[in-house]
Design goal:
Helices cover 79% and strands 4% of the residues. It is mostly helical and 193 residues long. The model is unreliable at 1-33 (pLDDT under 50).
Length: 193
């Protein structure tokens, strides 16, 4: 009798579990089915960052400043190398004494160390400026995407650089670019106050 009762309880539990499992699976499938193509969008992040007013006003200037600094560093290094080569040539030809050559060599080495220290400090400052600029651009982009999706219309927004193929109607890049520019303009206006 106990075995029959135990078997009946186990069978009842199994039937009850089976009865609820398809309902749970159906609910999970319904949630999965809720995400459709109209719930997804993509943004061409690189295009937004390259075309936004922040980059056009500040990013391009920072990039130009960095390039000028790099050219200046290369020129200073080239000049020091040329000076050292001329000194070596004069010494080999016997046009200056060993004592004078050593003194001038020491002077060149001191200027080279000074130049390297100066260039390193300048490079660190430029790196920090680039870091801050990149963070500002990423923050503006993130806030713009959140503002464009404030109504939670999209359940998934991805970076277009990861796409292989997508319908152009899913592209929200123009809306995000407009919002980034709007947020940047508001920031500039606020900073002037």
């Amino acid at each position: 009798m106990k075995k029959t009762l135990f078997t009946a309880v186990v069978a009842a539990l199994a039937l009850t579990a089976c009865g609820t499992q398809p309902a749970e699976t159906a609910a999970a499938e319904a949630e999965t089915r809720e995400v459709g193509t109209s719930d997804m969008a993509y943004v061409q992040v690189e295009a937004v960052l390259a075309q936004c007013d922040l980059y056009l006003n500040e990013g391009a200037a920072l990039q130009e400043k960095t390039q000028k600094a790099q050219k200046s560093w290369a020129q200073r290094e080239k000049n020091l190398q040329a000076e050292a080569a001329q000194l070596q040539e004069k010494y080999q030809k016997g046009l200056i004494t060993t004592l004078d050559a050593q003194a001038k060599q020491k002077s060149i080495e001191q200027r080279a160390v000074s130049y390297q220290n100066s260039a390193q400090k300048e490079a660190q400052a430029l790196d920090e400026e680039n870091y801050v600029f990149t963070n500002r651009a990423q923050d503006l982009l993130q806030r713009a995407v959140q503002a464009v999706n404030a109504d939670r219309k999209y359940k998934l927004i991805i970076n277009a650089s990861a796409l292989i193929d997508a319908d152009s109607t899913l592209n929200i890049t123009p809306a995000v670019l407009a919002k980034v520019n709007e947020l940047y303009a508001a920031e500039k206006k606020e900073s002037k106050k």
